[in-house]
Each structure stands twice: as structure tokens, then as C-alpha cells.
Amino acid sequence: MPKFIIEARGPAYQRIGLVEQYTDFTAIIRYCDVGTWTLEVPANAKEAALLQPGHGIIVRLNGQTEPLFSGPITSQTRKWSADDPGPGSITYSGVTDEWLLWQRITYPVPANDVLNQTADRYVATGIAGSVLVDLVAKNAAAGARPERRYDALDTLASASGSTISTNTRFDVLGQKCQEIALASGLGFRVRQGINDRLRFEVFVPQDRSVEAVFGQQYSNINSYEWKLTAPQADTIIMACQGEGKYRYVVQRDYKADVVELLNSDAGRIVYAGTWTNQVSTIGDYGNEYQRTVVAGSTATLNFTGTGVRWFTRQAQASSAQGGGTVQVLIDGQSQGTVSPTRGDSTVVPRYLGYERGNLPYGQHTITLVHQSGTSAVDYFEILDQRLSNTNWRMNGERFIDRRDIPVAYNLNREPINPDTSAPAVPGEYMLQLDQAEREAWEDLAPKGALSMSPIDSDQLQFGRDYGLGDRVTVDIDGNPISDILREVRLSDSSSEGPRVAPLLGSSGATETPTLYRQVRRIWDSIKKLEARS
User: Fold this and answer.
1) Is the pLDDT of residue 74 over 80?
2) What's this model's pTM, rounded to 2 decimal places?
3) What is the tally of structural domains in the chain?
4) 3-state secondary structure labels for all residues of 319-368
5) Is the dihedral of CA 145, 67, 132, 501 positive or negative?
6) Minimal CB count within 10 Å: which of 54, 370, 435, 453?
């Protein structure tokens, strides 16, 4: 059974004492989001003197040195009743320290004051973890203007994640960090360490789905509950800059059966022979691709699912950009050859070179064997065709206004007098469109949530063997379900004792009240419109 160690901190983040006399403690900590907490103490307890406006708490598990969370007090309520002639109680409520990121907006030029913003927006291209740290440092920490700086907030360097491109203009800093992190498979948190300072840190969630398995047959779970909700749409129309019919518009369809996307530089793709990494300027996924001209060179991917899609480049057969002949093998069996060539000189990135579905669900292998010309690997999609929107009978569309992405025109619609100040689809902006698509599906795609009440044991303990953001597995009647740990509810009361209740599922499947989600979504939309003005 876990035990929570709760410390009170003063206004300068100094530790001022243990909180031991409490009647009820509840906290919800969230992956890449602000958590909440409440703490009830007797009105005559010494803890009442430790917990004052401007103070906060630091919470960790017994035996752990790193805190689960820390955060300030935001309200306190004094209660007494004649029915209970005792001293009464004081209930303190607060948020986690990630809250600080939601108290800052992103300046187009962070070094200047708001009256001297000399750029339309702040643009950053680089490793996702570094971009996150840079945004926080320049808008809230050591690199921010003195009047905007949290003096006690440190940022820890990060080189995690793939290359991204993002732009921002007066967005909520926490919201922008959340968008980047979720789209890049990273996590971030703000918490107090062993000293009197706060740390913003980026982390890489771990795949614990093999070792962290919960189920009735393992006697390590008290209960579970799962929920599925239908998608709000499965087609989005994203519109960037421009006016009227000259506005750049792109359609993206939700692929319910795509359970994983692997860029060409993913470590799981094994290249043999001679391959070179190429930087893309025309919109290949991830702004790069792998290329070979050496016959016999292979690219192999092991995957779990019911199918796979290989995306390459379509070009002239003689082009150095792509257009070679490739033999495809599935589980060692030849599927024939493909040659993604075309009759003109145009290079088409993200071209579907081969697709195979309807395999028995399980582990499979796809191998590409280069035979002639020039062959390319842009990315792979792993399929699980057991997952389909057709079960919901939904076929909705949504228009997504992304005027903040500076793709200013469409060559096909304005060929006579194009705006030559920017190419139609530069690779940098394709990265931004990719991220915008992922953000949209976070909100519109079908969602699932699975909550459970685990039993801590010597073999498997929360905070030691798995944590927020990690991928874990729950076995329900012999059907393993693996997903990201999005939220954890911590509680300790005199009636039930300490408990830990994790919640798996999509980022929208949290205990945030529905009304609050709706209001926050409207607020985010308003902020995007204001930022474009």
C-alpha cells in the first residue's frame, strides 16, 4: 500500500514542515497538463499554520526521492458545524506547478516588450525537446524579460524527439508546449526538486507494456472501468494563409486503422547495404527520407498488426529523387515488384509505394529489396484493421482554420501571378501541417479511456516501476490493452487509506469536467483568432 509524504513549502519555495495530521487528501496529476489537489486538516492542527496563502505542498511516495508533484495553494475553506462540535476543518485546494506555464503567453519576439514586437510570429525548427525548453526559457524562465521571469524556475536541457517546426504568436505557453509534446511523443513537467527551486523538464515516456501488466489473474488490480466514445469527424479540411479561392487548403482523412507511424529514421527500421539520409525541401514526412542506388540494399521492419503501408517518392525513372524498382517481401514471401515512376519531372513526396492488409493479427515483417534506379523510404504506417470507424457509422467533416501556418497560396489555383515570397508547400511548413493534423485528431478522433485501481506489490509499484506518460498494459479477460498512462488519481482518507488510480487512454479522456473541457476548447479557439489579428 503506498504512503504519501506531504511537505509544506513557504512563499520562497523553502520546505517548512511535514503535513501529517490530515483527514482527507486527493490529487489528480496529468500527463502534460495541469493537475489539481485538495487537502483537509483539522482547524486546530499545527499544519494549519504551515498552510497559508502563497504557500504550497510537495508530495512524494514513501521511499522515493523525486516528488510526484508540487504546487501552490489557490483557495482555502474553513468549515464548522454545530452538529460536529469539534474545532472544524480547513480545506486547502491547489494546482500543480505546471500551472505556471498556463500563466504566460508566447511573444513573437520574446526579448522585446509587448509594444515592440517586430515580427509576426516566433518560428522554431529543431529537435522537439530543445524547442520546448527554448520556448519556456524565453517566455517564463532565465531567458525571459525580467518582468515575465519566474526567478525560481530552471529549465533542463533536452535533445529528445524528432525534428519539428512550429510557430506561435501570443498563444498560451502551456497550451503550446502541450501541443508540441503530444505530437512528438514527449512529456514535460514542472516540479520542485530537492532544493528550493522549480524545474521544467522534458522526458521520454517509456514503453512498460511488457513488464507493467495488470489483470485479475495477476492479483494486482482491484477494479477497472473502460469507456469508448465515437469520433466527432473523420475528415478535416485545413486552410492556411491566403484569401478566398486562393487560400491554401489541404484535406486529411483520419485513418482509424493506423496504430503507429514510423519516420524513415526510426530505430526499428533496419537498413542494410548503402542508404543515405536526405533532407527534404518539398514536404517528405519529418522533412527527410532515406535513399539508395545500390542494388541489393534492404530496409526491414518488424511490426505487430494486420497490415502495413510503405510511403516513398514518385518521380521519373531516371530521377535522382526516386522512381526505382523495389521487390517487396512480407514474412519472407515475395509480393512482387513495384516501381513508383511517373511520366513527368515532378517529384511527389509521401507517395504510397505498397500496401498490404488483412494479415492475421500478430507479428510480421516487411522487407524492401532495392533492384534498380533510385529507391526511397519516407515512412511506414502500421495497421490494425480490427479498429475501424465503421463500427460507429460516422462520416463527419470539420473545417480547421490554421491561418497561422504561412503557406500563402496554391499554385494550382493561382498559376498566373503567384506570390513568390514563399513556395507553395515548403518542407518546413509541411512539418507544421503534420503537427496541426495531429492536434486536430487529438480533439476529433474516437477516444477511449481505461481506469484501474492497482495493488502495489514488491514487484510492481507506481512511481518506481512505471509513471505518468509510460505505456502499460491491462489484461481484460485475456485481452491485453496497452496505452499511455494519461492521468493518476491519488487519494488518502481515514475511511479508505491511501490509493493510486491510474487512467489510460487518449489525452481527452481525463477527469476534467465536460463543461470545463468545452469552455477551454472555446477559449483556445478564441486565442488562436486573436493571435492572427
Assistant:
1) yes
2) 0.66
3) 2
4) CCCCCCEEEEEECCEEEEEECCECCCCCCEEEEEEEEECCCCCEEEEEEE
5) negative
6) 54
